[in-house]
Design the sequence.
């Protein structure tokens, strides 16, 4: 990063040492943490702009200046360039190829909101180019990708935040839930149920012309080369402006080639909070067993036999054997949220509520002072980007770090592998491999398509 910005951050850390950098939060729209003037604000770029890409960008304008945007869809790119110029009063440079963003010396950090199959390649190359990284969840397409990202974070010393916003931005109830468990309000935890909803199967999706402005070859990138498919009906509401059924854009989460269905979508939120509360953020399960599940297409040897329909699981109930004899259930049934059950009580939490006898008891017996801050590791940031910039200033990892994220995401990935192979999997959380199952271990990694290998 530029020398002037290094000096600013060093001065900030010296001045903040007495208070502790992790406890600082400045809501000002004029400057970010530790930056003395608008010219010293961090310079960001966003790669991948549809839906969540714009969401994380728009929430970050009060903390950073955006010098560049990149997307393989020219229409999405042009729209977001115009919106960004209107928001910040300066037009960002526009690129189809993200590598031109990484070549820029003025960019301090990149925000990545591409489909999942692109996350690891861009993130690794960004760190090697000297950028700090904010990457949307789920961080990886495979378990081995997570190990690679961890290696490069250590190698480069870059600050890396995963976009699991339930840890801060929408997380006050979840922080309270973790604090309740930590304070023993339900006794010894016996069971935790993560309700993450199911998904619908698709009709047969026929081949279609690639939409004008979309570089579909580049969109596929590391994934296998396949024809573009879409039906004429358009999606309404969130994710609107794209086909309701396709193998691209908004629907990418429904295909194992690009994502992991509900397990790595909502699972990446609720399993994360469950593991945090259980103190299992640096370990893993001993076994993952699919009790009930439904795949929308036929599978052979763990792979779908057709390419014209969604292939991620539509319904499921998965048992996960966690440390200390805790049973975790991940299910598509019931309310979206997390149910904690212990020897002394139970409570339920989601983004709209936290309910149960232990919660009601807080009126007369509140949590100890500092209990929430103890969970978070300091004063809670109201904005996920704010916590990221705190980490950039302090040169330490933020609340949504890659290690805790990868550990819980391994549960989600293993759940998908277990369903695809239709059997339980014994897991070694130290070696981070499936025990005695070579076929299952072959799903821990995936080779990138030729021409889209990760440039190390």
Sequence:
């Amino acid at each position: 990063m530029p020398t002037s910005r290094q000096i600013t951050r060093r001065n900030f850390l010296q001045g903040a040492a007495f208070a502790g950098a992790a406890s600082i939060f400045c809501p000002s729209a004029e400057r970010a943490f530790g930056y003395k003037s608008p010219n010293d604000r961090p310079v960001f770029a966003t790669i991948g702009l549809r839906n969540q890409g714009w969401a994380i960008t728009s929430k970050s304008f009060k903390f950073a200046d955006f010098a560049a945007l990149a997307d393989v869809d020219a229409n999405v790119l042009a729209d977001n360039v115009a919106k960004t110029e209107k928001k910040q009063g300066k037009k960002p440079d526009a690129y189809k190829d993200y590598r031109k963003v990484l070549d820029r010396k003025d960019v301090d950090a990149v925000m990545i909101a591409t489909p999942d199959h692109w996350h690891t390649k861009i993130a690794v190359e960004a760190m090697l180019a000297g950028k700090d990284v904010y990457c949307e969840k789920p961080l990886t397409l495979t378990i081995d990708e997570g190990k690679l990202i961890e290696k490069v974070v250590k190698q480069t010393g870059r600050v890396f935040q995963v976009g699991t916003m339930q840890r801060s931005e929408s997380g006050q109830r979840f922080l309270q839930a973790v604090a309740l468990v930590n304070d023993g309000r339900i006794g010894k935890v016996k069971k935790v149920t993560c309700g993450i909803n199911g998904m619908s199967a698709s009709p047969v999706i026929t081949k279609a012309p690639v939409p004008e402005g979309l570089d579909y070859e580049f969109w596929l990138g590391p994934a296998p080369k396949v024809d573009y498919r879409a039906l004429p009906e358009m999606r309404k509401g969130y994710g609107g402006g794209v086909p309701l059924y396709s193998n691209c854009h908004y629907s990418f989460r429904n295909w194992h080639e690009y994502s992991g269905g509900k397990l790595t979508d909502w699972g990446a939120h609720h399993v994360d909070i469950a593991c945090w509360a259980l103190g299992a953020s640096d370990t893993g399960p001993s076994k993952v067993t699919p009790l009930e599940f439904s795949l929308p297409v036929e599978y052979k040897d763990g792979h779908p036999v057709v390419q014209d329909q969604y292939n991620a699981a539509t319904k499921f109930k998965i048992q996960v054997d966690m440390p200390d004899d805790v049973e975790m259930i991940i299910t598509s049934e019931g309310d979206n949220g997390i149910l904690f059950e212990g020897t002394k009580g139970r409570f339920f939490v989601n983004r709209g509520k936290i309910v149960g006898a232990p919660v009601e008891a807080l009126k007369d017996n509140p949590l100890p002072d500092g209990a929430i801050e103890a969970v978070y590791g300091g004063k809670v940031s109201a904005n996920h980007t704010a916590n990221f910039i705190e980490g950039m200033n302090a040169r330490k990892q933020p609340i949504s770090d890659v290690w805790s994220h990868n550990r819980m995401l391994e549960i989600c990935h293993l759940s998908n592998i277990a369903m695809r192979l239709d059997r339980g999997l014994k897991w070694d959380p130290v070696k981070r491999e499936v025990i005695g199952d070579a076929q299952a271990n072959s799903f821990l990694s995936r080779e990138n398509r030729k021409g889209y290998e990760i440039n190390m």
